[in-house]
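Input.
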Amino acid sequence: MCRNIKKLRFEDRMPTDEEMRLAALQYVRKVSGYRKPSRVNEAAFEQAVAAVAEATRVLFDGLEGRKTVIG
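Output.
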């Protein structure tokens, strides 16, 4: 379904906040069917992007082995 979303797991670093936000934006665009939502739907769209980006941050913060690669 989302084959255009780029992989964010890198061998040498954690993904940046911007990379996570862009991946979240790609995901929300895909599942909503909107490239750019109407003004009436814009707040819900942006809230979803922020929630997906935060969930991605939580995921990476919780993955074992990531901290040793970075540290």
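The two ends are 34 Å apart (CA to CA).
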